[in-house]
Each structure stands twice: as C-alpha cells, then as structure tokens.
User: Fold this.
Amino acid sequence: MTSFPADLLPCNVAYVGPAPVDDYFRIQTTDERVDGMDVLDTAFRGRRLRGQELVLPPGHVAMLLQQSHRTNDKHVGTDEDAPTRRWEAVGTCQPLRYWNHDVTPTRTDAPRRCMEWLSLAECVSRHVPANEVEKKRASIT
Assistant:
C-alpha cells in the first residue's frame, strides 16, 4: 500500500484536487526539540507554521480513505438500489504531522493529546478475565 505524508493544518483549505504541494510547502527541521521531538518549521500562504510529527501508539496506523459508492450492497431495511456509503483504504499516512500558527508545539496540543487517548482507551477497554478481578479483589481486602 502506498504511503502519503499527511499534514494537519490550523486552517481550512477550500480546494479538493491535485496541487504542487512539494513546490511550495517546504518543511525544515529546526535546532529546537520539545519533549524529545524535533520542531518543524514551514510557511503556508505567507504565515509561519511550527509543528511536529505525531507518533502513533504501537498497533495503530493512520490510513488514507477514499469514499466510494456501490450499488451492489444489500442491507436490511434499505432500498436495494440505493448507493451505500463506503470508505476504502487507498494508502497509509506517514509521516503524520500537525502544525500551529507561530507557536512552538507542546505536549498539551490537541493532536498530541489525541495520540495519548488512543493508548488510554485501549487500556480502559481491555478485557479483564474474572480470575484476575478476583485476585485483585482478594489482595485489596
């Protein structure tokens, strides 16, 4: 599967289609490091952007999805000829970067906190066998 760079920009780009991004969006690594990670520097439409790569927790992959409409899927309670909204993976996103306007990235930035949530959600929703629960309960009382 093809890998594409993905950049989370602090703005909305009202355009969908091909663009010569590499000709204008030139990313440089600075001498700064925050939380052990390189700080990146670039500009978009004349505004300075500062960012970092996002590190996904083990077992997670960022995917590039493309919407497709199929008419051959049949679902209970729907019109058989109605298109079904589907998403198909067309590639992975590597590297995955986020950007701030003029502000050095920190661990409290929302994209970084989201990556922490993935690990936390996995721990919270992990199945715990009954015998482990009983062992823990016995050690507390």
Observations:
- The mean pLDDT is 88.
- Residues 57 and 122 are 10 Å apart (CA to CA).
- The chain is about 20% helix and 40% strand.
- The first strand starts at residue 3 and ends at 8.
